[in-house]
Amino acid sequence: MRRISLVAASAAMLAVSALPASAATMGSTTHKLSFPATSGLKASGTYTKVAKGIKVNVCAKDTSKSTYAVGAVVVASNSTYKMHANLGAVAFGDHATICRSMTLRLTSHLQVYSFAANNKGMMTHKSKLKKIY
């Protein structure tokens, strides 16, 4: 009985040690997101590569009384940019903070942008897409 468990443990250790270094550490590093500057917005976020895609957290804080709503958006795309998925956080009202989390399955490219909107639902500012990777 001992030999069987010893053999199983040895086989498991051998399998783990045979993995490439990138696979052994996959999902363990959390990276900070940096959003383009938008007046009245304080945005933050993180992403972590996990087995099923990219785990994304994004927060938006409205810091201006004159701005009705502000938002921060993360866009994940496939290698050809033909398919994409996004996660956004939109804060309404002065000093309101909203955070959102989700795992995005498309992992080839990651970009971010930010925006501000007025009380009529019109975007008054939209930043350019900023490439993360």
Offer a few descriptive terms:
2 helices, five-stranded antiparallel sheet, about 130 residues, alpha+beta, globular, Immunoglobulin-like, single chain, disordered N terminus
Describe the protein's architecture and organization.
- This protein is an alpha+beta fold.
- It has a single domain (25-131), classed as Immunoglobulin-like (Sandwich).
- Helices cover 15% and strands 49% of the residues.
- The chain has 2 helices and 9 strands, in the order ααβββββββββ.
- It has helices spanning 2-17, 21-24; strands at 30-33, 41-50, 53-62, 69-77, 84-92, 97-104, 109-117, 123-126, 130-131.
- The strands form 2 sheets. Strands 4, 5, 7, 8 and 9 form a 5-stranded antiparallel beta sheet that branches.
- β7 and β8 form a beta hairpin.
- The chain is globular, with a radius of gyration of 20 Å.
- The N and C termini lie far apart (50 Å).
- The relative contact order is 0.20.
- Residues 1-25 have low confidence and may be disordered.
Question: What's the gist of this structure?
Answer:
The protein is α+β, with helices and mostly antiparallel strands and 133 residues long.
Per-chain topology:
Elements: H1 2-17, H2 21-24, E1 30-33, E2 41-50, E3 53-62, E4 69-77, E5 84-92, E6 97-104, E7 109-117, E8 123-126, E9 130-131
Antiparallel strand pairs: 1-2, 2-3, 3-6, 4-5, 4-7, 7-8, 7-9
Low-confidence parts = 1-25
Tell me the number of strands: 9
Roughly how many Å apart are the termini? 50 Å
Largest sheet: 5 strands, antiparallel
What is the CATH architecture term? Answer: Sandwich
Count of discrete domains: 1
Approximately what portion of the residues adopt beta-strand conformation? over 45%
CATH domain class name: Mainly Beta
Q: What order do the SSEs take from the amino end to the carboxyl end, as H and E?
A: HHEEEEEEEEE
Write the CATH fold name.
Answer: Immunoglobulin-like
Radius of gyration, Cα only, in angstroms?
A: 20 Å
Tertiary shape:
globular
Helix content: 10-25%
Query: Helix/strand/pairing class, anyone?
Result: alpha+beta
Distinct helical segment count:
2
Mean pLDDT: 85
